[in-house]
Amino acid sequence: MTTILIRGGTVVDSETSHRADVLIVGETIAAIGPDLEVPAGATIIDAGDRLVMPGGIDPHTHMQLPFMGTVAVDDFYTGTAAGLAGGTTSIIDFVIPDPQQSLMEAFRTWRGWAEKSASDYAFHVAITWWDDSVHADMGTLANDHGVQSFKHFMAYKNAIMCDDEVLVNSFTRCVELGTLPTVHAENGELVYRLQKLLLERGITGPSAHPLSRPPAVEGEAANRAMRIAEVLGTPLYVVHVSAQQAVEAISRARGEGQRVFGEVLPGHLLIDDSVYAHPDFEYAAGHVMSPPFRPKAHQEALWRGLQAGHLHTTATDHCAFCAPQKAAGRDDFTRIPNGCAGIEDRMSVLWHYGVASGRLTPSEFVKITSANAAQIFNMYPKKGAVRVGADADLVIWDPSASRTISAKTHHQNVDFNIFEGRTVTGVATHTFTRGLLAWVDGDLRAVRGHGRYVPRQTHAAYFDAARRLAAGGGRSGSGA
Ligand code: URQ
Ligand code: ZN
Ligand code: ZN
Questions:
Q1: Ligand 1 close to Cβ of residue 314 (< 6 A)
Q2: What number is the average pLDDT over the span 137-146?
Q3: Ligand 1 binding pocket mutation candidate from 263, 287, 338 (most atoms within 8 A of CB)
Q4: What average pLDDT does range 320-343 have in this prediction?
């Protein structure tokens, strides 16, 4: 069993930062404190004036997703390996059954794909259709397979889109199970109508993409999902919030005491919709994802949402497609596979534009890149904490080092990078995944198959207590 002593660093977690050594024994953090004794045979890593933080958790990825007639090019090994190069040590990916496909069959398929992962992984399971078997399988997944969250795409009509009936059925089931519903909040009917209108007018290039899904399309769906959640008495998690309207809806709901969580992507914090007007098709199409990058004014609302605690996690929605795949939509923007990469750059981008800019403290950085996702998705403190007994998922972070992001040098298996050319400060020098040192000063030593599935408990106990309280005429207002 390996023993590693990380010496002389400053430990930063979601609550504090303090100078301390960290002792790793095998896969677990064994001791934290100043001037720890060096066990015989231990490997010593001098952290110097760098930080020691919980490894990043990316709660939104799509490795090797079959989508829009093709397959995302990062698989569970290459995608998690690239994440380790950037300081991310766990992902939560998505099982997305085809409509009418058994949830259990899809879950087994994705579990098989994920066995090659280089770091740990969990799954949200998407509800893309409804009948009694879906109701039953949700229970099996929640109670026997550690699935604590279920995803609902309100977009992608004629594919994986949920209508209100499915949302209401599934959210009701989530309350019964004590599981967390999450939503991709765009009104898919409106998107479909606008796509048809644009194509009928001969507007077929990538510049049509944002026109087919304006901010109001997201604001409506986010608000609708929150109202359904409120009436049914379930918490709600809104993925990739990109529009001011959605941030405002979340902060209003939270202000009224509703338990709503929001996720934001670094891309939506920094990149605006001018990218779609670029004359080069590959450049514009390379930025096609949903929700689209917005007019610049939305970015300030997103940053404020993060700083105010109305947005809780950052993710990448890593769903990478190469230029030849994006070219499927050269004559029809609705056929451009939606998705961008990001897992390798999320942490550095957020440190540079968040902490180095003074918007966020280092502890807030840990919250939005790791601890909050661990708590919301019930992996804390096994993940998301520098704590004795926690998994040794750690990153040694050099806050003063910088690097220039490029598809030419990144480890992601894709020929495009939405952060191309940006020089960012804040770099992972060492990344440990359950005690395995997988990234050292630019040397990627990821091990295929090292990653393990992370089962997550439901919140049934909390919900039962809430239900008892409600039944006993306790708290007023919406309750389970
Ligand atoms: O919608 C998603 O989250 C998946 C299909 C990735 N693609 C995207 O454009 N966001
Ligand atoms: Zn989505
Ligand atoms: Zn996604």
A1: no
A2: 98
A3: 338
A4: 98
- Per the prediction, the chain carries an average pLDDT of 96
Nearest protein Cα to ligand 1, atom 10: 290
Q: With bands split at pLDDT 50, 70 and 90, how would you rate the model's confidence at 472?
A: confident
Listed by start position, the domains of the chain span: 54-382+455-463
The b-or-e profile of 307-341 (16+ CB within 10 A means b, else e) is eeebbbbbbbbbbbbbeebbbbbeeebbebbbbbb
CA of 184 relative to ligand 1 center, distance in Å: 8
Q: How would you label 52-84 residue by residue, b for 16+ Cβ within 10 Å and e otherwise?
A: bbbbbbbbbbbbbbebbebebbbbbbbbbbbbb
| Long-range CB pairs of 249-255, under 8 A, 24+ apart, other chains included | 249/219, 249/222, 249/223, 250/222, 250/226, 250/305, 250/310, 250/311, 251/305, 251/308, 251/310, 253/226, 254/310
The amino acid present at 360, given as its one-letter code, is: L
Report pTM: 0.97
What's the length of the chain? 480
Model pLDDT for residues 3-25, shown as the tens digit of each residue: 999 999 999 999 999 999 999 99
Mutate to test the pocket of ligand 1, among 290, 316, 418 (most ligand atoms within 8 A of CB): 290
pLDDT in tens, 290-311: 999 999 999 999 999 999 999 9
d(CA 22, CA 390): 12
Fold of 54-382+455-463: TIM Barrel (3.20.20)
Q: What is the CA radius of gyration of the chain?
A: 22
User: 261 alpha carbon to ligand 1 midpoint, in Å?
Assistant: 19
Is 339 a pocket residue for ligand 1 (Cβ < 6 Å)?
yes
In the reported structure, the alpha carbon of residue 66 is separated from the centroid of ligand 1 by a whole-number distance in angstroms of 11
Give, using CA atoms, the residue closest to atom 3 of ligand 1.
317
